[in-house]
Specification:
47% strand; outer membrane lipoprotein receptor (LolB), chain A; globular; 247 residues; alpha+beta
């Protein structure tokens, strides 16, 4: 065998080895979903909303069961204390103690801002598995800070989803999303997400501080911080009922 043939063989072997080290987009999303969507969780969080003129911080506690059940109660500041949200499947209700009324949020109302933040009701409700909602491909690799990432391009499988396409940066070592761009069907950029810190809790990596930006509105975005979290926590099924909104 001549040197040229040996060189070609070596190049082919190197290329095959490099290719074998690149997981498929579906395999990457499976790892992301396993890390991010536990059976249940109880978390205390706060979001700081940076408006055009001032910033304010809202604190809440949430009980979440799988992808279809969630109950949130706002704790601070005083003017928001006692406001609650209940999610059951694709249905959402909000309750205000000032009016003592539970209001169903549906249709175009789901796109409205929550508490004046950069997150919509659709964003708050979304806890679905990316692997089930999107087709994906590996578009490349980049390093963000000191973290090597897979760059994925996601295309929705259904017209019912809030963001028909996404560009997602997945940390190679931790398999969490650390940056994301969310697009309309037209290709227009709608929102961005940037993970600013992560934490290892109960054998899972999770984003601890995240900056959300609605690029269509003014302001410096909304910072979301997890103050405490418990995975696989026991939660009474009675909590996920409209009766709980008035308790």
């Amino acid at each position: 065998m001549n040197r040229f043939a040996l060189l070609i063989g070596a190049i082919a072997a190197f290329a095959a080895a490099a290719s074998a080290q690149v997981p498929t987009a579906d395999a990457i999303l499976d790892r992301v979903d396993r890390n991010a969507v536990p059976g249940s969780k109880i978390l205390v969080s706060e979001m700081t909303i940076h408006g055009r003129r001032e910033s304010r911080t809202v604190k809440s506690k949430s009980w979440i069961e799988g992808e279809d059940k969630a109950f949130t109660e706002y704790l601070d500041p005083p003017r928001e204390r006692g406001i609650k949200m209940l999610k059951l499947g694709d249905r959402l209700w909000t309750y205000s103690p000032d009016t003592d009324r539970a209001i169903a949020i549906s249709g175009h109302m789901l796109r409205q801002s929550v508490m004046g933040s950069d997150l919509s009701y659709e964003d708050m409700m979304a806890d679905h598995k990316l692997r089930e909602a999107y087709d994906a491909r590996v578009a490349g690799e980049e390093t963000l800070g000191d973290r090597p990432c897979w760059v994925l391009e996601l295309t929705s499988r259904s017209g019912e989803i809030a963001y028909p396409s996404r560009k997602t940066w997945v940390d190679k070592g931790r398999f969490i999303v650390i940056k994301e761009e969310r697009y309309a069907k037209s290709g227009r950029l709608l929102k961005t997400l940037e993970v600013r810190s992560v934490e290892f809790v109960q054998n899972r990596w999770l984003p601890k501080e995240v900056l959300f930006r609605d690029v269509l509105k003014e302001g410096q975005g909304t910072e979301f911080r997890i103050l405490s979290i418990e995975f696989d926590a026991p939660i009474s099924d009675a909590l996920f009922s409209k009766a709980s909104l008035r308790k």
